[in-house]
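Record minuted for completeness.

…
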Amino acid sequence: MAVKSKFKKGDYVVYPTHGVGRITGSEKQEIAGQQLHLFVIEFPKEKMTLRVPVAKADTSGLRLLADTAVMNTAYKTLKGKSRVKRTMWSRRAQEYEAKINSGDPVSIAEVIRDLHRNAGQPDQSYSERQIYQAAFERLAREVAAIDGLDEDAAVEKLERVLEAA
């Protein structure tokens, strides 16, 4: 029996904890005595293949690329004023990681906005830079997939948005 799904082979998708990948097909596998229909998702940047049960695709957080309205909100968020809470860095770092792993472009944009440093501002700590880079790369990959750009062009586009802020 075929399972109906909004995803199909060739679609670019976002898996919350891994970012942008492409569905390369589907397959059936027997796992623990159960026949499962799985999406095969390639993440070329990470050199990784993920198999997600079709029946669990929605509950796993798998989604199609963001639409124009969501990306416009993300760009608007990037241009906003930084809202750094005065809590301990370890707690903020956990919150930032959770936002990145949510896969939501607007939440990822909040992390970038809050950790972005302009010239003349104090340097970031190593862990701040790591989280900033992770968020920036995640959003850049989605922008690249949506706009049909290579990753470098998507990075430049995001940097222009940040500079315009």
The CA atoms of residues 21 and 43 lie 5 Å apart. The beta strands are 12-15, 19-31, 34-43, 48-53, 63-64. The longest helix spans residues 126-147. The two ends are 52 Å apart (CA to CA).
